[in-house]
Write a structure and sequence with these properties.
The complex is a heterodimer of chains A (454) and B (437). Helix content of chain A is 48%, strand content 13%. Chain A has 22 helices and 13 strands. In chain A, the strands form three sheets. Chain A has a five-stranded parallel beta sheet, with helices on both faces. Chain A has a four-stranded parallel beta sheet with strand order 2-1-3-4, with helices on both faces. Chain A has a four-stranded parallel beta sheet with strand order 6-5-7-8, with helices on both faces. In chain A, α4 links the parallel β1 and β2. The relative contact order of chain A is 0.09. Chain B is an alpha/beta fold. In chain B, the strands form three sheets. In chain B, strands 1-13-12-11-14-15 form a six-stranded parallel beta sheet. The mean pLDDT of chain B is 94. The chains are: A alpha/beta (454), B alpha/beta (437). At the A-B interface, α3, α4, β2, α5 and α6 of A face β2, α2, β4, α3 and α4 of B. The complex binds iron/sulfur cluster. Iron/sulfur cluster sits at the interface of chains A and B. Chain B: This protein may play a role in the biosynthesis of the prosthetic group of nitrogenase (FeMo cofactor). Chain B: Keywords: Nitrogen fixation, Oxidoreductase. Chain B: One of its GO terms (molecular function) is nitrogenase activity.
Chain lengths: 454, 437
């Protein structure tokens, strides 16, 4: 079990380990600091990737914290089922730890398959069940033949590492156990896999129409609004497009190695990147006709979008923004803000890979001081004050910090209710930034109480 | 009779872990850092959960136990975690909470703690409260109760607070089911009876939204100095059956007598509290209290036309469940169909319900019968959507809802509020029904 984890950490797709010396590798993957760590565990990361598959059941093998504190908590939207809303857990007790809980796990899987009729069951191992040495892969295999359904083990004990690593564990389970097990009804021309888009707040539904307009077929979505079956025939796509999740590049890499599907990394945040990504897709599809179609399409869309943006641009122009978000978004959102005429004073490099950082630096023309390393709420707030920033773009965790200091804020991570991708998303983003920047609430908040002015 | 539905797994858990309960207690203490001993995920999930519930910053940390350390079981993470938290944040108190993972590994945190004390004598000023909260046993309420009891065991100093007092001091041990508005109500009531009340934990002050600046440790909650002198109080009040354990600590170690209120929901339960206050202080009842009682009764009379013939199902931790169940059935006359709870503690067995189940929201869904509405946490929203029933949110977590923590459930005020809220749900049902052909 531990051996296997080690190979996963070392595999070439790992952001941290690619093209580094042994010493650097150790550095980059170093352990979190006790008493000064934020962020979720590997199990959390695995669940983020797989949970959007809503016609499959997700069974968490462990005591109550793992599932009890996390279910019904994703902003992912879907139309293929509702099993992602369910929290299934073996909820193991002290007795189970002493006596072993493989039998319980088996029965749980059977219970779920009989009662909820899923297309498949994903079974996650967590810290305690991994520690007591439960062989979930074997259990899954046994039950799978009994219930005649795919039962997929996901090796994801939290102690193995960060969320990013967990993303990769999930990707690994998809490639190892799911991809290549089904045949699609048809594979239309220009079929792609979209990897790393979880349909948070319905963002996929802003990207899908663009692809449809251009005649690009989304064969397999990994995993926003995905059915289990479409993961199973992802090997039939012509191109893989990885967006906004570096940790899932490993899926694309494995699909390339195994099935010779070329891949590209792209983003649908900002008009410029949307266009670039589309052009890259056309290129890998070797479709020149598509290319010229894209040029024309994007020009029209951009014009229409600017027309829609008109009421908000005066409010946004010249406003200073601090961006504190993870990974890919730390650079992709910069383009969006730039197109809206805003000035980014710093962007965080938290959870960013070296390529991410290069892209941020590109944007700031190499100015290192624009990079913001990991910092706590206090650091962020101090920077905002120091630079007289008008707005903080960050994840929900920092929302209440910003509100404590009465600073306009927009949530750009998991729990938000608004989608910011593609052309529609640009307008949505502009609108919501304008709302918070002009909200009269801040006047009230900044006003002194009568007894403070007297 | 409490039933356990035989099934191998939990479907849509109602239960939260002891970790969550214990961390919640520490969030209600001034300058206290909850430190979760385990992998980072347990803390991250708990933080996310409580942040959404309170809509506030919820400071907490993890010892970030990692792969190798997990297998070898050394205690460096715990030692380093304590050291780093003290160096960086200088809390007055650290609430050290274990997880299923470190308990499975067999960590003896008390032993580690004494090694830490030996190694770092300079850090002796920081009070460290170890609480054993494996998530493979108990529930959030038992974790909460355990944490309060442990604080009182570890931090109370027999000699503190013996100086001259012009008022009688009362410890109010506040159960997990109380909201900020409930705690505020208790404070005002006790103050107006001329008592000096100390609330432990005081989540109203820390998580109620009154702190208007950034903080990396809880501010304005129960203060350490007050905890230290809790042994010199004249009396303790335990609110919720789960708080009895903590009251016992003060009784046994410091001879502080106590009275326990299994619930303070409803007019009858509140009357009991008022009777005690009148007896204990000999003081007249404040005018506002008298008015609130009249208003509560008036609201209940106005609402009762819609209560008749209604049925409801409730899911929650034992204390919350008992309070709601008793009040709704005995004072509103609403029939209880199915009650689901998370631990076999508490008094809910005495409630008159068709089904009392020790289980999860999956059990609730199956045994809902002909309920007209449901009282449960936000996670029951999908059940209510499927069954087309109204959900009155209570318990943990209540998310995607503003202001929950400031809803008042106890006292006369709470009785009035619930008569309105539940009354409106029932009224709407009646109107809806009258439109059906
Ligand atoms: S750290 Fe381990 S026990 Fe905690 S939530 Fe993650 S998998 Fe579960």
């Amino acid at each position: 079990m531990r051996l296997k984890l080690q190979t996963l950490v070392n595999e070439p797709g790992c952001d941290h380990n690619q093209s580094k010396t042994d010493k650097q590798k150790k550095e980059a993957c170093k352990k979190p600091t006790p008493g000064a760590t934020a962020g979720g565990c590997a199990f959390d990361g695995a669940q983020i990737v797989l949970l959007p598959v809503a016609d499959a059941a997700h069974l968490i093998h462990g005591p109550i914290t793992c599932c009890g504190h996390s279910y019904n908590n994703r902003g992912t939207r879907t139309t293929v089922g509702d099993l992602h809303d369910y929290g299934f857990t073996t909820d193991i007790s002290e007795m189970d730890i002493i006596m072993g809980s493989e039998k319980k796990l088996k029965e749980s899987i059977k219970y779920i398959t009989e009662k909820y009729r899923p297309k498949a069951v994903f079974v996650y191992s967590t810290c305690v069940t991994a520690m007591i040495g439960e062989d979930i892969a074997q259990v899954c295999k046994d039950v799978s033949s009994e219930v005649r359904l795919p039962v997929i083990p996901v090796d994801s004990p939290g102690f193995a590492g960060s969320k990013n690593l967990g993303n990769k564990f999930a990707g690994n389970s998809i490639v190892e156990y799911v991809v290549g097990t089904k045949e699609p009804e048809a594979v239309p021309e220009n079929s792609i896999n979209l990897i790393g888009e979880y349909n948070i707040a319905g963002e996929l539904w802003q990207i899908e129409p663009i692809l449809k307009d251009l005649g690009i077929n989304l064969l397999s979505k990994m995993t926003g609004n995905a059915t289990y079956d479409e993961l199973a025939y992802a090997n039939k796509a012509q191109v893989s497009v990885v967006i906004c999740s570096r940790a899932l590049i490993s899926i694309a890499r494995q699909l390339k190695d195994k099935y010779e599907i070329p891949y590209l990394e792209g983003s649908f945040y900002s008009m410029k990147q949307t266009k670039q990504t589309l052009l890259k897709i056309a290129e890998l599809l070797k479709n020149d006709e598509l290319k010229s179609k894209i040029e024309k399409y994007c020009a029209e869309k951009e014009e229409a979008t600017y027309a829609e943006l008109e009421p908000y641009l005066p409010v946004l122009k010249g406003k200073k923004v601090l961006v504190y978000t993870g990974g890919v978004k730390s650079w992709s959102v910069l383009h969006q803000l730039e197109e809206l005429g805003m000035e980014v004073i710093k962007s965080s490099t938290r959870k960013s890979t070296e390529e991410d950082i290069d892209r941020i630096l590109d944007h700031f023309e190499g100015d290192q001081s624009a990079l913001m390393p990991k910092g706590d709420g206090r650091t962020i707030l101090n920077l905002i004050k120091e630079h007289n920033a008008h707005l903080l773009l960050a994840g929900g965790r920092n929302m209440y910090n910003a509100m404590k200091e009465q600073i306009p804020f927009l949530d750009v991570n998991q729990e938000r209710h608004f989608a910011f991708a593609g052309y529609e998303g640009m307008v949505e983003l502009a609108r919501h930034m304008a709302y918070t920047l002009t909200s009269p609430v801040f006047d009230v908040a900044h006003s002194k109480a009568p007894w403070e002015v007297m | 009779m409490v039933r356990v539905i035989e099934k191998p797994l939990s479907v849509n858990p109602l239960k939260k872990s002891q970790v969550m309960g214990a961390v919640t207690v520490f969030l209600g203490i001034d300058s206290c850092m909850p430190l979760v001993h385990g992998s980072q995920g347990c803390m991250a999930f708990t933080k996310n959960f409580l942040t959404q519930h309170y809509r506030e910053v919820t400071p907490m940390q993890s010892t970030a136990v990692f792969d190798i350390a997990t297998i070898l079981g050394d205690d460096s993470n715990l030692q380093d975690g304590l050291k780093n938290v003290i160096d960086k944040l200088k809390p007055k108190v650290i609430g050290l909470v274990t997880t299923g993972m470190t308990e499975t590994r067999g960590d003896d945190i008390k032993a580690v703690l004494s090694r830490f004390r030996e190694k770092y004598p300079d850090y002796a000023d920081t009070v460290i409260v170890p609480v054993s909260t494996p998530d493979f046993a108990g529930d959030a309420e038992t974790g909460y109760a355990e944490a309060v009891a442990q604080i009182l065991t570890v931090a109370v100093k027999p000699e503190a607070g013996k100086e001259y007092k012009d008022k009688k001091c009362i410890n109010i041990l506040a159960g997990m089911h109380l909201n900020a508005a409930d705690i505020d109500w208790l404070k005002r009531l006790f103050a107006d009876f001329g008592l000096d009340a100390f609330v432990l934990p005081d989540l109203a002050s820390t998580m109620g939204g009154q702190v208007t600046r950034f903080y990396s440790l809880p501010e304005e909650g129960a203060r350490l100095s007050d905890i230290e002198s809790a042994g010199c109080a004249d009396f303790s009040i335990a609110v919720g059956a789960s708080m009895e354990k903590a009251a016992d600590v003060l009784l046994e170690n410091h001879s502080v007598p106590y009275k326990k209120f299994d619930t303070l929901m409803g007019v009858k339960a509140t009357d009991e509290l008022l009777s005690w206050l009148i007896d204990y202080t000999g003081k007249p009842v404040p005018e506002w209290v008298k008015i609130e009682r009249k208003r509560a009764v008036d609201a209940m009379l106005d609402a009762h036309f819609s209560f008749g013939g209604k049925t409801c199902s409730i899911a929650g931790e034992p204390d919350l469940l008992y309070g709601f169940g008793k009040f709704l059935s005995e004072e509103f006359g609403i029939k209880l169909e199915c009650l689901v709870t998370t631990a076999k503690t508490g008094h809910f067995e005495t409630l008159k319900a068709d089904n009392i189940i020790f289980g999860d929201l999956g059990d609730l869904e199956e045994n809902i019968g002909k309920s007209d509405f449901i009282i449960a946490n936000t996670n029951a929203e999908h059940i209510c959507k499927r069954k087309k029933l109204p959900l009155y949110k209570a318990g943990y977590p209540v998310k995607e809802t503003l202001g929950h923590f400031h809803r008042n459930f106890i006292g006369y005020r709470g009785a009035m509020q619930l008569a309105f809220d539940i009354g409106n749900i029932c009224l709407e049902k009646d109107i809806e029904k009258s439109h059906k052909i």
